[in-house]
Amino acid sequence: MKESPKSLSVIVPCYNEEDSLPALFARIEKIAQDWPEQHEVICIDDGSRDRTVDLLREQHARNPQWKLIVLSRNFGHQSAVSAGLEAASGEVVAIIDADLQDPPEFIQELIEKWREGFEVVYAVRKKRKEGIFKRAAYYCFYRLMKSVTEIENFPLDSGDFSLLDRKVVDTLVAFPEKNRFLRGLRAWSGFRQTGVEYERSARFAGEPKYTFRKLLGLASDGLFSFSGVPLRLASYVGLMVSFFSALGALFFVVQKIYPGPFQAMGLPIVPGFAATIVTILFLGGVQLLFLGVIGEYLNRIYTEVKGRPEFLVAEKLGLEK
Ligand code: UDP
Ligand code: MG
């Protein structure tokens, strides 16, 4: 067993979380004495439009172990976490949500696993307290990811709630990628990884800040940045359609040259409007679908090539160097 870590950073991305923050402050302060003496809680304000920044400022003034990064606008959860990872200085770094769905008390258990020698300890959701539709969508997504991505041991049902060793944080921060799907990069990075089960609570207050669109964006970032399977699918479907088209073409050519046997079988040569229109529509659909798939990759390549920063920091409190 390793000794307890010398320092701990906790990263909390916050987007319009004024209703949850007071409870978060209280919950963490109650247990922080069990954490390494040298710890910091880095809250990232991801362009909130409510009182989130004010509350975080007050908290920093009350307790300088609470630090603050204000992003210049809403960049999304993954970018907010990246900003936190970049600023964190702890020997181990934990990532949690601001809405208390990830119990801060559980960080202690993650640290225990780290002491056993794991560099990545991620929390696995035992039960979700969300609607049936969302649960089903998550269930399918994680299994799809596992089957089509190049990541070995992609953990099922684990989000960003995790504890990372300094080594892993340094690696992740150094990735030049802009479309970040952190739980994928985390799994991809290798090292010694393990999961610990926990019960995911319901959101403490307020509405989920991940809208359906944002979730869809996150899911497609995960899929497209870790798998070439959708592109390969285009080749397979193309190949199959070409094969059947060739068979069909052969049939019609033969029918044209030797109409006799076909007529005897009761297959007259008809001006085939229906067959033509169905074929055209079908092929049009397949082509558009895969143009879309190519577009997904192209769009990501475009973003990466532009090389714009993943987020912009407007202000830092307690983190000035
Ligand atoms: N969040 C963020 N930026 C966003 C959306 C969400 O920083 O654009 C934060 C949010 O404040 C919360 C965490 O990401 O701390 C998870 O968001 P949410 O609870 O809405 O997601 P869910 O738990 O429903 O997956
Ligand atoms: Mg939540």
Can you describe what's shown?
This protein has helices at residues 21-31, 52-62, 77-87, 107-115, 132-148, 166-174, 182-188, 212-226, 229-257, 259-264, 273-306; strands spanning 7-14, 38-45, 66-71, 92-95, 120-125, 158-165, 193-198, 313-317. Helix 5 packs parallel to helix 8 (212-226) and helix 9 runs antiparallel to helix 11 (273-306). Helices cover 50% and strands 16% of the residues. The chain is α/β, with parallel strands linked by helices and 321 residues long. It folds into two domains: 7-209 and 309-317, Spore Coat Polysaccharide Biosynthesis Protein SpsA, Chain A (Alpha-Beta Complex), CATH 3.90.550; 229-306. The protein binds uridine-5'-diphosphate and magnesium ion. Uridine-5'-diphosphate (UDP) binds next to strand 1 and helix 3.
Features:
Spore Coat Polysaccharide Biosynthesis Protein SpsA, Chain A; 2 domains; 321 residues; binds magnesium ion; binds uridine-5'-diphosphate; 11 helices; alpha/beta; 8-stranded mixed sheet
Range of helix content:
40-55%
CATH superfamily of the largest domain: Spore Coat Polysaccharide Biosynthesis Protein SpsA, Chain A
CATH classification, class level of the largest domain = Alpha Beta
Order of helices and strands: EHEHEHEHEHEHHEHHHHE
Largest sheet report: 8 strands, mixed
Number of domains: 2
Total of DSSP H or I helical runs spanning 4+ residues: 11
Number of DSSP strands?
Answer: 8
Query: Proportion of β residues?
Result: 15-25%
* Average of pLDDT: 87
CATH level-two architecture of the largest domain: Alpha-Beta Complex
CATH fold field value of the largest domain: Spore Coat Polysaccharide Biosynthesis Protein SpsA, Chain A
Radius of gyration: 26 Å
Chemical compounds bound to the protein = uridine-5'-diphosphate, magnesium ion
Cα shape: elongated
